[in-house]
Design goal:
Blueprint: H1 3-28, H2 34-47, H3 49-52, E1 66-69, E2 72-75, H4 92-101, E3 103-104, E4 108-109, H5 116-119, H6 124-136, H7 159-167, H8 182-194, H9 198-201, E5 227-229, E6 232-234, H10 250-259, E7 261-262, E8 265-266, H11 270-277, H12 284-295, H13 321-329, H14 331-334, H15 352-355, H16 360-368, E9 370-371, E10 382-383, H17 392-404, H18 415-427
Antiparallel strand pairs: 1-2, 3-4, 5-6, 7-8, 9-10
């Protein structure tokens, strides 16, 4: 037999085996119905997967988003179905273990920047739909993951197993409370599980763990009681009248989650991204369920309660330094009476962000400005930055004025507080 014939036969056999291999792969690869994929797409929106797994200007779900931590920077992973750089070779069991238990194939523990302590509550039905979407509803992208910039030994993963054992050992799916309505349980499932609201709105402990993963248990009063995140303050979502949702109706909560604003204020900071990528796409039924659940949470006893109403409400000191600065820089949009413009510029009077015990958000938005959430069919508005215009003392004067005017009960703000926030913002820009 000639060398040429041998090569021809080898090519033929190789090609035949390759075809058989692809046929076998196609037979082994599960197929999902359009309904499963569509449901999974909705689950992914509720879980806000795209926000962390898409870098600015990058392709959806291809990862690469930097996440600065005190010990260095980690980058989100590629979760497209690419078989080499993504999760294309994941079985459902691999996928479920990574999302709900924080362990990737090969026993690699994930950093808890991935909110798997909350995702642990996702039901098997939603997990299967999510898997269907990522396997067959997402376009594969060949983009390798970026390694973290942390130095050894901080790059070791095995200590994360200890962290998981200490703080996230419960990986059972959400169990409905038989004492509550189906609507309340749906809201609890979305808030505690898929929506992972506690990842931002619950304070963290010495191990950077959420101090509570639900409203039940010994530390349940800390759940959603507010926390600092990325130079912003993720607000208290409990029933406190000052800085909480005590004065909000179910309709107020639904409107904010759907449009990014309501009659008492507007979302700023990272919450605008949550609304843009996630909550504006939720069904009205799910938004109402979330609102019903949040309104059931009692006030955090460690936070101030609403003062007893007085009649009439005390009027602001219009001759103070802060009031004059407000009139010059703020009143054009927010009005002299602090009422703003409905649906456009947030009111200062009765605004929970303004009255919050922590003035971080108010200081931050005065210094750095911000934009309302990008919502389909609703015009975005921009708050200009005043960092280059106002001194620390001037910002403190304005903040103090609005926190104490029109019946508001927020404490005074000092120039040193403003200086710290200014420095922190400068570090991230």
């Amino acid at each position: 037999m000639s060398v040429t014939n041998k090569k021809s036969r080898l090519h033929y056999v190789s090609g035949f085996l390759l075809i058989i291999g692809w046929v076998g792969f196609a037979q082994a690869s599960p197929r999902f119905s359009p309904q499963e994929i569509e449901r999974g797409a909705y689950v992914a929106k509720v879980g806000d997967c795209v926000a962390c797994h898409t870098a600015p200007g990058g392709k959806p779900f291809a990862g690469g988003l930097p996440m600065p931590l005190p010990m260095g920077t980690i980058y989100s992973s590629n979760i497209t179905p690419d078989p080499t750089d993504g999760i294309g070779k994941y079985t459902f069991e691999d996928f479920d273990r990574a999302v709900r238990k924080g362990v990737a194939p090969g026993g690699k523990y994930l950093y808890p920047a991935m909110p798997y302590p909350s995702y642990a509550k996702v039901t098997p039905e939603d997990m299967k739909a999510l898997y269907a979407y990522f396997m067959q509803g997402v376009k594969p992208v060949a983009q390798p993951d970026k390694p973290p910039t942390m130095i050894w030994p901080l790059t070791l993963r095995w200590p994360l197993a200890i962290w998981k054992w200490m703080y996230a050992s419960d990986d059972h799916a959400y169990q409905p409370d038989p004492k509550q309505s189906a609507q309340w349980n749906r809201g609890a499932y979305l808030v505690e599980g898929l929506g992972h609201c506690g990842a931002c709105h619950t304070p963290r402990g010495i191990g950077m763990q959420e101090k509570a993963l639900s409203a039940s248990g010994a530390d349940g009063s800390l759940f959603l009681s507010g926390a600092k995140v990325e130079n912003w303050y993720a607000s208290n979502l409990r029933g406190n009248g000052v800085g909480g949702l005590g004065g909000w109706s179910v309709a107020d909560i639904v409107q904010l989650l759907k449009t990014g604003r309501n009659s008492t204020g507007a979302a700023m900071g990272s919450m605008t991204e949550v609304i843009h990528h996630s909550s504006q796409h939720w069904t009205d039924a799910d938004l109402e369920a979330v609102a019903i659940y949040l309104k059931s949470l009692p006030a955090d006893p460690n936070k101030p309660r609403a003062p007893q109403p007085v009649a009439p409400a005390p009027q602001p000191d219009l001759h103070s330094v802060g009031s004059l600065a407000y009139a010059q820089h703020c009143a054009l949009c927010h009005q002299n009476d602090g009422e703003g413009a409905a649906g456009v510029f947030p009111a200062m009077a009765g605004n929970p962000t303004v009255e919050s015990r922590d003035a971080l958000n108010l200081i931050h938005v005065i210094l750095a400005g911000g934009q309302t959430a990008e919502v389909k069919g609703i015009h975005q508005f921009t708050m200009p930055a005043f960092a280059s215009v106002l001194s620390d003392q001037q910002v403190a004067d304005i903040a103090t004025f609005v926190r104490s005017g029109w019946g508001n009960s927020g404490a005074a703000v000092s120039a040193s507080e403003v200086a710290k926030v200014r420095a922190d913002i400068a570090k991230t820009h």
